[in-house]
Amino acid sequence: MTYHPKSDFLTALIERGYLADCTDLQALDDRLVSGDPVPAYIGYDATAASLHVGHLLNIMLLRLLQKTGHKPITLMGGGTTKVGDPSFRSDERPLLGPDQIAANIEGMGAVFSRYLDYSDTPSGALMLDNAEWLDGLNYLDFLRDIGRYFSVNRMLSFESVKSRLDREQSLSFLEFNYMILQAYDFLELNRRYGCVLQMGGSDQWGNIVNGIDLTRRVADQQIFGLTTPLLTTSDGRKMGKSAGGATWLNSEMLSPYEFWQFWRNTTDADVGRFLKLYTDLPVEECERLGALGGSEINDAKIVLADEVTALLHGAEAARAAQETAREVFEKGGAGADLPTLALAQDELSEGISVAQLFVRSGLAKSGKDARRLITEGGAKMNDEPLTDPGLMLDAAALADPVKLSAGRKRHALVMVAL
């Protein structure tokens, strides 16, 4: 029998497609309608200087939680990043130093204020760092007080660990401790802030369940876990990946135009689903737009790109990105906001091949990829077809900005730095 929630949060969560699994949906629903705002958290390890589109689903989930009257907690992994989450990885994460972790947290933290209200109100979000309680742990006390609640047999049964061991790939003792530390996070958040819900991607299910079990044993508290689906696009690609790599959320690492263009390039079959997951538009409007056929689906893709870009970068950036796209596609112009590669004069003393420019500008992943793109007729320069990957350009040829195109939708400018 399908469960029909009473709470606004779970109703919207199910309608919009965020739910993969929940430890006790009915008991959580009862807690959500009990009166006071419910604190819930998602953890983010500081492994890069920016979050990427793969994180955006759960950021939107925190936004939905707050919009329905509850209290989101963004937990930065200043402590756990020193260990590294082994979940579904084939090798150990590179260990980062404290300065790099701090810089990454600063870069990641800037994104959340675009989606969440951190004001001092009952539902105001909190941004915390688990280094606050993990850095000062006494190892022997931690082993005695916390470690005794964990069964190694059970930990070995989790899919994230089994998949690594089944492939006979090393799992270090350092990484094995990660799931204990994450479970301890949930216990500390419950003690300090009354947090009763951890959310995350479905690959975090084992870690979430560990935290629930530990908190029940140590603090005799009922808490909950909820996971979102691991998204792939309709053509089977991992959500958030593009030809140029990760689709970053910080504008210093990916321009608002490139971000807008990522969403404009959504495949037809994904438009309605992505509108529900990544925008604030009503469900009925998302479904109407997603059901459009023929050339009208392109209008829905522009709505998707505009809405998602406006949330992250602001409405003005979304308008500028759409205008740049219109210049590029409809008017044949260069588009002032296109990704730009600025070359130093001394790089051009002997000229540079057009194939290298495709690689340097991010339109091709390698020289081989660039040569294939050009020889197969998929590349243009200033809207004219390119056929020779060895074509050399010097400073005179780049006196005016040159527009490179890979296919119909990916473009970049190349110019000489002033």
UniProtKB/TrEMBL annotation:
ATP binds at residue 241. A motif ('KMSKS' region) lies at residues 238-242. It comes from the Bacteria. InterPro entries: aa-tRNA-synth_Ic, Rossmann-like_a/b/a_fold, S4_RNA-bd_sf, Tyr-tRNA-ligase, Tyr-tRNA-ligase_bac-type, Tyr-tRNA-ligase_bac_1. Its main location: cytoplasm. L-tyrosine binds at residues 41, 178, 182. It is found in: Cytoplasm. The keyword Nucleotidyltransferase does not apply. Its EC number is 6.1.1.1. It is an enzyme of class 6 (ligase). One of its GO terms (molecular function) is tyrosine-tRNA ligase activity. Keywords: Aminoacyl-tRNA synthetase, ATP-binding, Cytoplasm, Ligase, Nucleotide-binding, Protein biosynthesis, RNA-binding. It catalyses: tRNA(Tyr) + L-tyrosine + ATP = L-tyrosyl-tRNA(Tyr) + AMP + diphosphate + H(+). A motif ('HIGH' region) lies at residues 46-55. Pfam families: tRNA-synt_1b. Homodimer. Belongs to the class-I aminoacyl-tRNA synthetase family. TyrS type 1 subfamily. Catalyzes the attachment of tyrosine to tRNA(Tyr) in a two-step reaction: tyrosine is first activated by ATP to form Tyr-AMP and then transferred to the acceptor end of tRNA(Tyr). This is Tyrosine--tRNA ligase. It comes from Tropicimonas omnivorans. The lineage of its organism: Bacteria, Pseudomonadati, Pseudomonadota, Alphaproteobacteria, Rhodobacterales.
